[in-house]
Amino acid sequence: MDSKIFRSMSYGVYVAGTMDGDRPTGCIVNSVMQITSSPATVAISVNHDNYTNGCIAKSGLFSFSILAEDSDPGLIGGFGFRSGKDVNKFDGVDHEMAAGVPVVKDSCGYVVCRVINTMETATHTVFLGEVIDGVVYEGNRKPMTYAYYHQVVKGKSPKNAPTYLPEEEEKTQAAGQQEAVPVKEEIVSSKWKCQICGYEHEGEELPEGFKCPWCKQGAENFHKV
Questions:
Q1: pLDDT of residue 148
Q2: Which domains does the chain have, with CATH numbers?
Q3: Helices assigned H by DSSP within the chain
Q4: pLDDT the model gives residue 184
Q5: Using CA atoms, how far apart are residues 63 and 100, in angstroms rounded to an integer?
Q6: Of 54, 70, 79, 186, which shows the fewest CB atoms inside 10 Å?
Q7: CB 152 within 8 A of CB 98
Q8: pLDDT at residue number 9
Q9: Of 123, 5, 26, 133, whose CA–CA distance to 84 is shortest?
Q10: So what's the pLDDT on residue 166?
Q11: In what order do the strands lie in the sheet with 32-37?
């Protein structure tokens, strides 16, 4: 089977938000689907390994903020490549509370749901939620699709994403091996690429103490391209 066919399906890019006790937390998801219109019901898929999964199960509430094509790409790195168990992901992020859960303001808008049922798969929990709130932010922004994220933003899929393909990791490892091979001195690179999230930094050298603005990883995870 050619698993790339799944990328021809329609996906968005969302920040799922919930509460870890009294602390906001969340993660990037792309599998969100409206099930019914009346009453409005939505399904969202979250990997078992995502810290957010257990927080949604405990709180019984979740939101999803619909990222726009011009949303800060750092949102994807911050929410997609770090664990809410280790960091407060909403620190420094422009957000507000809606119906008891956090939502990102740098987005097209948000939906808030109360969990009414769940379905378990081998790797993900599908949370079925009854919609209790929803807002469209001003600006008439264009929602980001998963295809746009890959083709224009040039981002990678978090390993816990439903759309992650193992060959992405293989390509990353191969790239790392190729970088270990000496190159001719006359070949000069002006870009460094994060092997975790795909962010590209322009410059002959990385600044001292440099960290990726998307996923917050250190310079050791960057290779020249």
A1: 77
A2: 7-151 (2.30.110.10), 166-224 (2.20.28.10)
A3: 51-59, 74-80, 146-151, 166-179
A4: 42
A5: 9
A6: 186
A7: no
A8: 75
A9: 26
A10: 57
A11: 23-29, 14-20, 61-66, 109-120, 124-136, 40-47, 32-37
Residue for token pair 């990997």: 47
How far is it, in rounded angstroms, from Cα 41 to Cα 191? 45
**Tokens read off for 224:** 């020249």
Dihedral, CA atoms, 5, 143, 42, 32, nearest 10 degrees? 30
**Can you tell me whether residue 4 is helix, strand or coil?**
helix
Q: Which of 76-90, 100-114, 119-133 has the lowest mean pLDDT?
A: 76-90
**Cβ–Cβ < 8 Å for 155, 81:** no
pLDDT at 182 > cutoff 90: no
Beta strands in the chain (DSSP E): 14-20, 23-29, 32-37, 40-47, 61-66, 95-98, 101-104, 109-120, 124-136, 191-194, 200-202, 222-224
Instruction: Provide the sign of the torsion angle of the four alpha carbons 209, 212, 216, 221, taken in this order.
Output: negative
Contact call for residues 67 and 113 (beta carbons, < 8 A): no
Contact 198, 152 (CB under 8 A): no
Tokens of 143: 């929602």
Taking 70 as the threshold, does the pLDDT of residue 3 lie above it?
A: yes
Helix (H) or strand (E) holding 84: none
Query: What's the pLDDT at 163?
Result: 54
Mean pLDDT score of the chain, rounded to an integer? 83
Whole-angstrom distance, CA of residue 36 vs CA of residue 177: 49
Q: How far apart are CA 13 and CA 148, in angstroms?
A: 9
